[in-house]
Structure formats: structure tokens, C-alpha cells
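FORM 7B - TANDEM STRUCTURE REPORT

SECTION 1: FIRST PROTEIN
SEQUENCE AND C-ALPHA CELLS:
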Amino acid sequence: MDFFGIIGKSKEMKKIYELVDKVSKTDCTVLIQGESGTGKELIARAIHYNSRRQGKPFLPINCGALPESLLESELFGHEKGSFTGAISTTKGVFEEAHGGTIFLDEIAEITPALQIKLLRILEGGDFKKIGSNKMFRVDVRIIAATNSNLIMAIKNNSFREDLYYRLNVVSINLPPLRERIEDIPFLAMHFLKKASEKFKKPLTSIAPEVIQSFTRYSWPGNIRELENFIESATILSNSTMISPQDLPTLSEKIGINPRKTRLTDLPFYEARDLFEKDYIEKILSRCDGNISKASKLGRISRKSLRTKAKKYNLM
């Protein structure tokens, strides 16, 4: 199965691959949810190009990039003279994508009026162009995506509940990069190869300390941000290996957005020390730094408590 540039060997991504494989064999509507930069369009493309519709168009539309009037025309087309500037009759993407797939990104951004028209297509496969009374029938698979909480949008009356359930036949939830750090080395090397070819630079590796730093960052921009980091480092590098000096802003970014480390991401002894430090820090705080009170509360000898507090620079 071709995953069209989707990189990852983590257990989280293996589950995604299995789900993509299953839904590709059907025509069901799919809702892809995940933060910006997690690769929602790549997943949509993988579904389309591994389905029976692969020989037909795949048309992506960013619903948040256009005002309502332009988006409606883009989706459904319009008749000549239906509005100022409509100098000819045009097809919309639903007509253009007949037999194929439409990927509606940022689906939460569409207006209530367009939600009704989209619901009609999902229910019956037909629609009207702007300025026309003629009904058009199409065979189109819809894959939608959002980085918003649609359940909250329903509660706030900004998204139709019936449309949500029509779109959410199968849901694919993409994990953020900070929750799949074991994929970072593979992604980084993939982007390094692309950047080296793009900028004609002889880079072939990334220093281990750089990869280690990457795992300490929370990556609010996810995979897209990692790719930008690698491109920037490739441009700045004067070697065959990306080193810390090629990423001058990384330390500052880690300080602002550190990744919250799960204990299970660490070796046993590091995890034990992290727990011990956190426990002692909190128990001392509860006792206003009083060693005697803290030792009684924690049922640990004063000597051991003092030794551990000094070890972790807590006193």
C-alpha cells in the first residue's frame, strides 16, 4: 500500500495505517481530526489513491481560505450572470470531481448555509449551481478534516449535528508529533534528504544531540514545523551533518514550549529520579521547606530527605 510520503513506525502510526487500509477499500465518508501540521491531507490522499477511485480526480479545498460567496462558487459552480463578475458558466469542484474524491479541509469554517447544501449532497448526491434551478447529480466521495472540536462547535450552534454524523462515518484521529517522538528521527532524515536535494547541499546526517533536542520540544506546528526546521538548518549548515549551531533558535523554543515527558518515554533510572525529584519538591512545598515536617509526612528519615533534596538542588 502506498502512503504517499507518510512517515512513521510508532504504534500510533501503525494504527493509522491499518485504519487507512480498511477505509480505502470502501466508499465511506471519512472525518480526519488532528492539529495543524499533522498530515491530514496526506492521509486523505492515501485513502483516495489506494481506493477504486484512484484513476479519478482528487480535489482538495481549504474551506477556511475563502469567503462564503467564493467558496460556494468554488464548490458548486455558477451560471453566467448569476452575480457580478460571473462572465461565464463554470463547474464547481463537485462537478469536476465526479467519480473521484473531494477533500474538504477546515470543514468547521463553513457557514450554516453551506452546511445545508453539503448535507444535501451527502444525503442524495445532488446540488444546484449558483443562479440555476437545475439539479446536478454527482458520484463523489467526501473526506473532511478539521483541527477544531466539532462537538463543541455543535454545542455552540456553529456546526450542524446532522452534518457531523454524516461526515463522521469513520473518524481518523492523527496524533500530534509530541506524542510520537519515536518517529522524529525517521521524519528528520526524510526531510533532510528532501532539503539536501532542494538546496543542492551535501548533508547526509543529523547529530545525535540534535535529535535528542528534538525529542524535548513540544512541536506546536507538528510535522510541518519539523520540516521547516530541517530546511533552515540545511541552508545554514557548512558541513555534511546538521549540528546544534545550525539550529540557533531551537534551545529558546524548547524553553518556551518544552515537551511534557511521559515517564514511560524514559529509561527506568531516569524515570525514577524524575518522580523522586517531583515528589520531594512537592512534599517540601507542603511543609514550607521544613525538613522535619516533610520527613514525617513522607515517612522518610531526615538524613535521606536532606541528601535527596541537595541532590536535586531543592535546598
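SECTION 2: SECOND PROTEIN
SEQUENCE AND C-ALPHA CELLS:
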Amino acid sequence: MVRSMMLCIAACLLLLSAPGAWGGENCTDCHKTAVKGVHAGVPCLSCHLDEGVTLGNPASLQSGAAGCVGCHRGYHKLFDHAMATRERELSFVARSFGREDGEFFLKNCNSCHLKGCTDCHGGKGHDIARPKDSDCFTCHKGYFVGTDYYGMAPREDSMRYQRGEVAYGEAFLKMTPDVHAEAGLACGDCHSMASLAAGRKASRGCLDCHEARRTVLEHRIGAHLEKMECWACHSAWAAQEYGSFYLRFTNSPSQEFYKVRRDQTGEEYVKSAYLRKQDAPPLGVNGRGRVSPIRPQFIGYFTDIRNDRAVWEENRLMAAQWKAFFPHTVRRGTVMCEGCHDNPRRFVLEPEADRIYQLQADGMTLPSFWDQGGQTVANGAFLTAARYRELSKKTPAYRRAYLEKWQTLINHVETSSAP
């Protein structure tokens, strides 16, 4: 009788402890984790899927965010796009620095890009939230478009310039912010999750919100609206890096003499830039065939140093590749007419007589950073010399527009003080 009673009690206990007993969960009996944020109150197995074979990281790239896309359908496609695959970066490294060091990407370039949904939606995992701009700037900072939106430009690599204010792990120069940032727009107002999942860079373009008013002189010139991106004129500045040096050291104590930032590279590497600029960027042609800002990304040099001696040759040119891009530094004003129409350097067509930096005298292969020879635009092209000559002709129409522009500026006089 007693034995039968004990067997009955044991059976009841097993039933109570079985997965899904009475339709509930018992995860929190062992896991004392509180779910916060927008998912507070959501059952554990809604994300972790199965109590017997639990999905440990339901938001990870490896699982295809299996615990997230059951509700947030379609967002698994984010892992097929640039933020996760890094296909272009991998290809660039393979045909440049990777020829000298097969592990270059892992050592120097592998700190960013999507590894799971919580990279943007809450790094702690159980405190899920909508992304804030600060989540974007974990990766979109420094030389890459992002923090420039709030007027932050990367400083020089030398430690003597690594001073002043720091944000998102970067010391920065204070520059003019984007007019949209001043108006209070966040990254997600133009870059929705749905657009990113669909493989688009943005959910809105300039003309979705703005109208090109014909009262503005530049907007009355047909070629400006037909052949140029809005941001070709309206980008106030952009971070530009001319000459990116990577030095690899092996058994070389002299590595310690380089007083530059050491958090940008692998342990045996030192990186520094020849020149950094924060002005109106050069112009080229993007993949849509329209005139757009471009910048070098990268003009890269490599030196292999072993036992404090350079192997083969110093400063080997590994890449001279530019990229058409959209600086997030939009302002209402534009450059003057001669900022484009009488400025060959702006189109990487610098005359030899105007060169200040004598690169070949320093053994750096290229005749000039602003000479198209030996350089390419990865997602577009340089403006041809013939097209530049055509747009620089001082026609009667150009002279009339130039005079009108100056008259507008001269007549726009503000009082120095209140009456």
C-alpha cells in the first residue's frame, strides 16, 4: 500500500516537471533573468522556441535570428546584405592587403558589422529596445559616414592630436552638423528597418520631403537637377583620408616608437594617415550616373618590417580606390560657382603645376592624390577631362548666372545690431 502511494506521488511530480506541464513554462525556476523593454511579459519560448532543445541566442546571425523572425517577419534578409556579409570589404582586402597577409581582415577590419539583432536592439539581450543613434554609431563613426551627422570629424592618428572631447570611443574635431540633426531627426527617420531589410540604403530621398524651388538660382539650371545628386552641392564637408599606411612589425622593438593610436589594428600593425582633410569633398560620378561626392577609401600603403628592417620595399601601394558616397553634412548653402566650374582639383584633375605634395619624391608611386591616373572609383567613375572642360566653359549663360549669384550675396545684408 505504501509502495503504491510512493509510486503515485513520484508519477505526479514527474508530470508536474515535464515540459509544457499545465500549458506553462518553468524557465525562470532556474534562469533568474528578467525580460525588460518592449518584450517584457513575452513568454521565454516565444524567442527561445523549445524548452527541451533551447535556442541559446535567438537573435544571432548564425541562427538567422530564428527567435526574432517568427514575429518580425522578413527581417532575416538583413543578414544577406552589406551590414552582415561585408562582401565588398572582404573583396577589397583580398585584392589589396590580403595579398601580403591572408589574415589582414581578421586582424584589422573585423570589429564592426551585424552579428545579430541585439547589436542594434539592445546589447544586453533581455532588454530589447528600438535602436537609438548611439547604437548606429557603434560602427558608423570615425572615417565612416555616421557621426559626421552630428559634426564629428576624425582627428589625426598621432597621440598628440588624440585629445579634446571623445564620443563612441573616438576623439573628434568639432565641425558643423547636418541641418537635419539640428532639426532633431534621428537616423531611423530616413533609414528604416524595412528599407534596410529590403537592401535599400534609405527609406526616403531628398525630394520626398523637399522641393527644388526655382527661386534658387542653382535650381533653375537644368543640368544641376538632371545630372547631380542634391548632396553634391549641399554637403558642407566630409572626412577624407589621403594615404592610409599599414606597417606590419615582426621582432621589431622600434614598433614602440610610433606614437599613434593602437586600437585601430592588430597587435603587430601600426596604422597612420598621410593627410586628413575636412572640407568640401571631390566630385565624381556614382552608380546612378549622377555627379556625387567621392573620397578615397582607401589609398593604401603597406610596409613589412622584420627585425627593424623593411622587407622588399617600403610603402608599397596596395590600392588606390575611391568611393561615391553621401556625406551626412547637409546644409542649406552651396559652394560658389567656381567651386566646381573652375576647380580641376575638385574632380581629381589637378594640374601638375599646382601640386603641393610631391608623392613620388617620397616613393609613394602616385604622382598626386588628385590625379586620376592609376586610381579607380569602386561604385562609379571619375568625371572625364572632356566633360570637365565642357562644364568649365565660360558661356554667356554662365556669366549671367555668375553675376546674379554675386548680386544675391551682395544684396543680402544683415544689420550688425538691433535698431
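SECTION 3: OBSERVATIONS ON SECOND PROTEIN
Residues 130-204 form one domain.
The chain has three domains: 39-49+58-119, 130-204, 214-408.

SECTION 4: SIGNATURE
Preparer initials: ____
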